[in-house]
Fold this protein.
Amino acid sequence: MRVGLIGTGRISDIYLKTCARFPELTIAACGSLNAEESRAKAEAYGIPKTGTPDEIIADPQIDCILNLTIPAAHAEISLKALNAGKHVYSEKPFATTVADGQRILDLAEAKGLKVGNAPDTFLGGRWQTVRKLIDQGVIGKPTGVMAFVGTHGVERHHPNPDFYYQTGGGPLLDLGPYYLTAMVFLLGPIRRVSGMARRTFDRRMIENGPRYGEWMPVEVDTHSQSMIEFSSGAIGSMTMSFDVWDSETPRFEIYGEDGTICIPDPDPVHGANIFQGPVWYRTRAQSRWEFQPRPTGRDDWLVADNTHGFNEDSRGLGLLDLAYAVRDDRPPRASGALAQHILTVMAGIETSAAEHRFVDIDCTCPVPAMLPEGFPASENTSYKDIEHAS
Ligand SMILES: NC(=O)c1ccc[n+]([C@@H]2O[C@H](COP(=O)([O-])OP(=O)(O)OC[C@H]3O[C@@H](n4cnc5c(N)ncnc54)[C@H](O)[C@@H]3O)[C@@H](O)[C@H]2O)c1
């Protein structure tokens, strides 16, 4: 699949590294609002062409647009790409409003094109292992889940952190997709939510890079708490915050009738937004966690029976799966429908906080299947030999 990359900022490096691992994906051109930045990226990664976003979207040689722009631009770029007949894979959130997300889905449907969306972390070895444990019934019927991220925002490490504090940003829309997508992958769709939220600071200072000392206005809530009810009857809670200096609260746990799965993480920022890491579980029959003793460092993270691949940052894996989805005419695992469900859930949490009421979630989504063992080789390697449709 020939891919045109739009948005050559911070997150693009890991996508470009992942795509370079897979012959199925060719980054044919890249562009952004910053031509110099895009030229440097093209040179660093051997991308043959750069252009303006409109030129890349109009390029007949390109099959799919990889949309790594800032959240406020996601819908505009995705809609333009679909109108030009291209498949789309976008960073999260899917859009900044549910209505825009629905526009993207409707246009893709009308045009017969595929839409995929980050996060694809749930395709990583850690989350595939958790799903396998649940499907095998190790903890019995899941009854609850809790997720927690307490950070003090991104202004200490992101050189241009403004968008995190503008409409479309904030911890719920920025980090919520990782945790909620993992929850839906593991426990199924969500049917009802409630939330509370606050904004602790009205402005924040950039504390790194060339813009050090510059103040940014904060347009969004930066501490969000929510309650979640799944269609299965399981219930959960989720805290996503940019206002917490530190915490020892567990990052992600799943409770079942017969046991608990814990997805521990020594790093408060990286719970569900990484592909790899240990998985602990304890059942009725055990007196302590499996996979003890507690890992001491990142090198110890792979759990004994994690037979799945992608135990490293593999952002872009969802795009690879989308390439196979195009070939086989099936929905991608990290699908637009899943992303729209997650966006609707997050909008519901915001509505609940604003209106002080429970909110029913009026859309659902297919729960993605696990990656087959040995993916992508197991997806029929003859793909590379198939003459491209265009
Ligand atoms: N930085 C991270 O650690 C990280 C991690 C995971 C996901 N993400 C997501 O990736 C996306 C991009 O984040 P980033 O950190 O790379 O941002 P960034 O600010 O570093 O880069 C954004 C890029 O998008 C381009 N852009 C912005 N508006 C555009 C428009 N209207 N048309 C065309 N191009 C436009 C900019 O020129 C720039 O190249 C966001 O949705 C973010 O949530 C970022």
